[in-house]
Give the backbone structure.
Amino acid sequence: MRFSRKPMTFKKMSCSRSTISNYRNHLWFFLFACFLSWMLWIYLHYLVKLDGKNGIVFSVNNDPNDIDSDERRMSILPVPANPNESMNGETQMEETDQISVSEKDVKPENLSVVKENEQEPAVTDNERTSTEQKVQPNDSATAMTMENQQKPVGGGVEEGNRIQGMQPQNKSMTRDKKKTPVVEENGVEQGIEDESDSDACSGRYVYIHNLPRRFNEDMLKNCQSLSAWTDMCLYLSNMGLGPRLSNSERAFSNTGWYGTNQFSLEVIFHNRMKQYDCLTNNSTMASAIFVPFYAGLDVARYLWYDKELKDTASTDLSKWLSQQPEWKEMWGRNHFAVAGRISWDFRRQTMILSQWGNGLMYLPAFKNMTMLTIESSPWHRNDFGVPYPTYFHPSNDKEVYQWQNKMRSQRRRYLFSFVGAPRPNLPDSIRNQIIDQCSASRRKCKLLECGLVGSNCHRPVNVMKMFQSSVFCLQPPGDSYTRRSAFDSILAGCIPVFFHPGSAYVQYSWHLPKNYKKYSVFIPGNSVRNGNVSIEKILNRIPRHEVVAMREEVIRLIPKVIYANPKSRLETLEDAFDIAVKSVLERVETVRRDMKEGRSSSFAFDEEMSWKYYLLGTDSDKHEWDPFFDKNHTNF
């Protein structure tokens, strides 16, 4: 059989230019698709890490739908060398139209309950000592495990009718200062700073009065009686911060956020004071003396019920203080205390108990002291405004930097927004007009009205998400001049818009810039009430570069208006507590110097012009805000 050996032939393929061009186009399309996939992976990678698990975050805002669409922002996040580990704990509650904590925002596992039949661990007599008189409460982690005033007030474990203190777990809080043992009268040995280290605390020593327990700790034991409508036991957990908030909706950071009640500042401040780095148990060395009286929690029990008891605790404490040897040095002018409600809750001017509040601020002892309140009186010289507690209580600088960078990169789709309820019982209130203007603006304004049944404005996550998506946040007065919402808006990087100078400018001069135009917008409330202005038009006319500058200033203010977690401390940043204590020390030193020199410059001004004196340094010059503080024509 023969086989043919014909050569193999191949069909010649066409190699025209059109065919080559088609293959080349397919190749470029494939490479471009790979490039887009790679860029998408990079975007998702950095988006996941935006909350700050990496030390450096690069963020750019290019959203064409944003109010700030032509803004490109890059932020580099600094990282402390040895940041503290984050801790849990949190609380919150806002004015009646503002914010409360929803069960969905709370992690119940953070609130462990001790049954009533369980006993506390035995504590020896040698372990019983007062944190109120410790020199350095941070010298050992075990120091905070002591009972009574050694344990943090308002800790996170509820035992029967009281809240058991949480123990600090951050060893980085400890300091390596030498201690000289000092034996007190009760035989308990406490440490005091070695003289070689005393210069760092010169002029900064604070002594904490060891008050009878009825003036503070007993209120926490009976926390169920503190409010007829709110479970204050929940909100006073975690050393006054309240229940921890989850970040399921990505409105917060992963750590440092709590459902904090707006009236819990006394407990938070007391626990921060116990961590102060220049405490002394020798009152003669102290530059100032702290009185840890929970005045706000006390009066809140009797605002609506048992009104005959409203003045009992404050009157008794006034007598107790005047009998102490520390009082006679300056007759109380070196004492300070925190009253965690607005000033008007402590300024009842008559003996008619059915009227609102008690008369604490008018008692002779408290008139000599420096009183810190969340809203001060513009017509009195002895109380000073400090920020409302917000939801954010960071444990270290890194958490603050991460949050600031997150706010810089937020997409803000609304020109302005308002969270609140109308005030039909207040004829001079401008809230109805603000709600009407916001509703009319539609796409430019976001409204979260709290007066409606089923409103979600009492969930912190809803409020923070709305503020984070807004360029400006309206802050009209409510039942009084101030609102916690103003500090929530600053925390969200939203520029506050005020309608009365008493809402911030004359209130928080220790914490906010005197040049209010750097961080806020002021629109006189009378103009809104009379229908003479359009809020939308005023805000739209502000040049974009000014808006950018104001927002950056607002974000820079965040550390100054928050209270760090009492379980730790910020490394380099000063928070609201640090600024308040430093300002108190400066004020006390001025008064002490005046007393030595026989002068009274600290009190040589018309008390009704206190707002002007503290703002301008004089009470005589005329000012554009005089009509706002005319007591005969005062309105909101």
In short: The chain is about 25% helix and 10% strand. Confidence is low (pLDDT under 50) at residues 1-5, 49-65, 69-196.
